[in-house]
Structure formats: C-alpha cells, structure tokens
Amino acid sequence: MLPPVNLFKKMNCFLPLTLLYLCSSIASQARSDTVCERLLNSYESLCSTEDNTASLGTITHPGSSCKDIKRRDAYSQNGLYFLQDLEGNVFRTYCDMSTAGGGWSLVASVHENNMKGRCTAGDRWSSEQGYSTTRLHGDGFWENRATHGQASSASSDDFKNSGYYAMNASDIMVWQVPNDTPMNDFESSALLKYHTNNGFLSTYGGNLASLFSVHYNLRAKQYRQTSDNGPAIPITWDRGSNEELLRYYEANVRGEVLPGFVQFRVINHEFGAFAFCPGVKIKSGYANVEHPCIGSTSFAGALEYCGDFAAWDYGRGWSQSTVLIESVVMIFYR
Q1: How far apart (Å, rounded) are the C-alpha atoms in residues 192 and 176?
Q2: What letters, b where the CB count within 10 A reaches 16 and e where it falls short, cover 278-301?
Q3: CA distances (Å), 284 to each of 12, 212, 242, 325, in order?
Q4: Residues 297 and 142: beta-carbon distance below 8 Å
Q5: Which residues are paired to 192 by β-bridges?
Q6: How far is CA 105 from the centre of its chain?
Q7: Using CA of residue 141, residue 272, residue 155, residue 332, what is the dihedral sign?
Q8: d(CA 145, CA 33)
Q9: Residue 82, phi then psi, degrees to nearest 5
Q10: H/E run at residue 330
Q11: 94 strand-pairing partners
Q12: For residues 40-75, b (16+ Cβ closer than 10 Å) or e, as one string?
C-alpha cells in the first residue's frame, strides 16, 4: 500500500521508482505502513537538502513571487506564503494559485472604515490629516514606501506590503470582497474578480508605486480634467461582467463610465486627483470621478470628495451600492 500522492506533491520532488517499489513491497509484506513512512521521511530529508524548492514559500525559503512558487509547484494552493522582494525584504502574503493560471501576489487592500470620517484616521490611501489646502499630496500612500497591516486581515483593514513597491510585475488582479471576510474565504466570497493581461505594468516600472511616483503623481490643483487622466487598461472578468458592475452604480454614475477597464490618476471637476477606478474608466469629457474611483488627494475641492472611497455614498443618483461600499478592494500582482 503506497502512501497518499499528496505526500509527494508536498515534497516537490519525485521518489525514484526503485524506492517506490521497495516501499510498496515492504509495506505489503509487513502489513504496516510504518517502514514505508520511515523511508519516505528519510527521502524527504535528503530531497529537501538537495533541492530547496521542497519548502519554497516558507520563512527559510521565501519565493520571489507567488508566480515563482506556482511555477515550481503546480499543486500549490491558495493561502499564505513567504516572499522576498527585490530589496531583500521578507514578508508573508496571500497567494491566489487558481485564478487565470494562478501565481497572483496580494500586495494591497483599500478598506473604507468610516464613510462619514472623510480624510481622518483610517483613510491611509487618501489622507489621515484632514481636508487641507496645504496638503495637496494627501498622505502619498499610493506612491510611498510605507507598509501597513497583515494579509490575513486584508478584508478588515487597509493592507500594503513591501511587494507593492519592490516587486517586478506585469499585470494586476482586483477582487472586491465583503468586509471582514475570513482569509480562507477571500476567493469564494469575492463579488467581482478581474485582471489585466497586456503586461502594462512593465511600461511603468513594474509596480503601482512606480506608476504613481514616477509617471502619474497624485497632486491636487496641478492637473487638468480629462486630458491629464492616466492610462485606462482593459480587464478580463474572472467573476462578474460589465453589466453586473454597472448594476452596482446609480444612474448618474453609469452615464459617465465605461466598464471593462481599470484607470489610474483621474482628475475631477475640482482638480482633485483620484488614484484608481476599479472596473471602469471615465468617459471622455466627464469628471465626476469621485463617485466610481478611490484614493483621493487630501484637497479634492470639497470635504465630501475626500477619503479612500470619497463620494461613493453621495446620493441623488450618484452613489454606489452598499454592497460595494462595504467591500474591500484587493490588488494583486503577477
């Protein structure tokens, strides 16, 4: 009787056929798996010594990315892994190993803790310092090297690891997951899932920190509406659709967006810069971007436009569904 196949998968190397036959024969004659298990344990120790991919993604052998781990172990599952970024920082994050081939590294989540507490404590992706004409940059969280939170609680608080600014990626994936979802349910509970697949990040330095800090700064009162908006990248839906996304918006918002994209650094009528529009791009000539987009600069024209989710709850035909307001935006790299 041979041991379960998943023992071999976890070892990430294959037992020689001679050892397999020997193990099977001994176990059969002895009517016990004890001898076989001892042989397997001995071989696992030897195999791990000769090829450290057996433990890739652990604290002692971090992967360079979730994609790296998936490439070396096709059987790797969704969950927490240790990664080491390009600067040598080792951190633990969530890997999605199943969507669109897997290998997606969670690097950030944007969580609105208080829609009424605009640009106060908890609005890390905009400003925790209040609405201020002297802080045109806000807190700069989209551009800087600050980190916050843990991957396992990414649906309950803002999250950002060093991979956000020190990994080299080509594409992003976005999940919109209900607040306080347990980590093991991130994937199954996501309302919407979509990813880019044209390698656009390579053009902007390989990560979003470079895109914003080098190419598309987030500053209020420095850019023109529409003409200074950043790139809009087509997406592929993994869960949801253009039509389903639009159903989460009230009528006025639906009239000003085109679903099936993600867009970066968009400017509103009051010349405030908003970092990211999940699932949509803004139609040419329109600038009420505070309703579908997230991550405003501190001074965005009025207090009601300030905050991580800014004017998502504006009302009067301009709001998003409570379901989305009470969900976190998770961002993955691959």
Answers
A1: 5
A2: bbbbbeeeebbbbbbbbbbbbbbb
A3: 51, 21, 18, 25
A4: no
A5: 176
A6: 7
A7: negative
A8: 52
A9: -90, 135
A10: strand 327-333
A11: 80
A12: beebbeebbeeeebbbbbeeeebbbbbbbbbbebee
Tokens of 113: 């803790």
CA dihedral 306, 310, 316, 319 (to 10 degrees): 180
pTM given for the model = 0.84
Widest CA span in the chain: 82
List per-residue pLDDT tens for the chain, 334 residues long: 333 434 334 444 443 434 433 444 444 344 444 444 444 344 433 343 334 445 899 999 999 999 999 999 999 999 999 999 999 999 999 999 999 999 999 999 999 999 999 999 999 999 999 998 888 999 999 999 999 999 999 999 999 999 999 999 999 999 999 999 999 999 999 999 999 999 999 999 999 999 999 999 999 999 999 999 999 999 999 999 999 999 999 999 999 999 999 999 999 999 999 999 999 999 999 999 999 999 999 998 899 999 999 999 999 999 999 999 999 999 999 9
Query: In this structure, are strands 236-239 and 273-277 parallel, antiparallel, or unpaired?
Result: unpaired
Residue 104: beta bridge partners?
Answer: 96
Residues in the chain: 334
Amino acid type, 119: C
Task: Count other C-beta atoms under 10 Å from residue 106's C-beta.
Answer: 25
Structure tokens given for 95: 């890997």
Distance between CA atoms of residues 84 and 90, nearest Å: 4
- Element (DSSP H or E) covering residue 160: strand 159-160
- Smallest CA-to-CA distance from 72 within 90, 88, 58 is with 58
Q: How many CA atoms lie within 13 A of 217 on its CB side?
A: 10
**Residue 233 CB neighbours (<10 A):** 18
Question: What DSSP state is assigned to residue 159?
Answer: E
